[in-house]
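CHAIN AND CONFORMATION:

***
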Amino acid sequence: MKGYLRLLLVAVAGMVVGSAVTLSYAQSSALDPARVAPHIFEVVLENEEVRVLRVTDRNGETQPLHSHPGRVIVRLSPCAWIVAEDDGSTRMESYKFGDVYWAPPLTHGGRTSNVVEECRSVEIEIKAPSVI
């Protein structure tokens, strides 16, 4: 785990080199996940270009409606949950420790989590391109 965490920190540090790092725990959107569900989404770094969230999903928690911009997700633990589809069917979604993937913008929430294993991840939201 330390290797993945170190790699993640190097990647994030590379994105913020040359920028003034400012910690800001508020985002303007009323659907900001860190604002509506601080027990799940914790801001650990924010500047003009990126925002990094530490996310912990637990079984039985209901996430309020919230919105995400496009972001990179890094899984810090294996995790799995059951997704209830609008048509009433269900499916299992799972990830391994160290999985990294891009997630497009999304607004969701309001359903109780059916997490099989507690899910821990880091989400890196891209705010603006760097100007060199």
User: Anything to note?
Assistant: The chain has one domain: 2-126. The CA atoms of residues 57 and 119 lie 5 Å apart. The mean pLDDT is 78. The first strand starts at residue 41 and ends at 46.
